[in-house]
Amino acid sequence: MTSTDAPVSADDLDTATLLSLAGSLVERAVVEAVRARGYEVTRAHGYVFQRLLAGDQTITALAVDLRITQQGASKHVAELERLGLVSRRVSPDDRRARIVGLTDAGREVIDAARRARAQFEERVRSIVGDELLAATRRALALVLDDAGTSAHIPDRSIPLED
Asked: Where do the structural domains in the chain lie, given as residue ranges?
């Protein structure tokens, strides 16, 4: 905050805008932290990483879970493969299919992202305190549940945005 910036009041913006801005702030902090470690990832790559944390997947399965085309999934996988973060191998069940999995470098990216999110949470805790942070987490969980997103969290199948 510069000397000319006034603090944001909870009454200045609607809830949707506050959530959107806060979410963008977190995403930017995570991507910047991972890039600082030398990995040129994008926000969209995070959706692929999340899905691969559940286990190796075919490109078809990634496309279905992310609700994108196979061509779109292939593009993301090719980018991540070029960066050395995933690898592809022939499926033993179907020689035409390719199985995608995380490499050690891909796991390092995930660890870096987790550390960045933990640091962000500690920063928020230092600003708002334990009680308000816990209340905020509960409120956000209720919003996610109401939106039907909570069903996708355990299997890491939150769709990629258009």
From this structure: 16-152
Bridge partners (DSSP) of residue 89 are 99
Looking at residue 127, its pLDDT comes to: 95
In angstroms, rounded to a whole number, what is the distance separating the alpha carbons of residues 33 and 113?
7
pLDDT reported for residue 93? 87
The topology (CATH level 3) of 16-152 is Arc Repressor Mutant, subunit A (1.10.10)
Average pLDDT by stretches of 10, the chain with 162 residues: 67 89 92 94 91 92 90 95 96 89 96 95 96 95 86 69 53
By DSSP bridging, strand 98-102 and strand 57-58 are: antiparallel
Ramachandran class of 55: left when φ > 0, alpha when ψ lies in -120 to 50, beta otherwise = left
Report the distance separating Cα 34 and Cα 91, nearest Å. Answer: 30
Tokens of 122: 């500690």
Cα(5)–Cα(7) distance, integer angstroms: 6
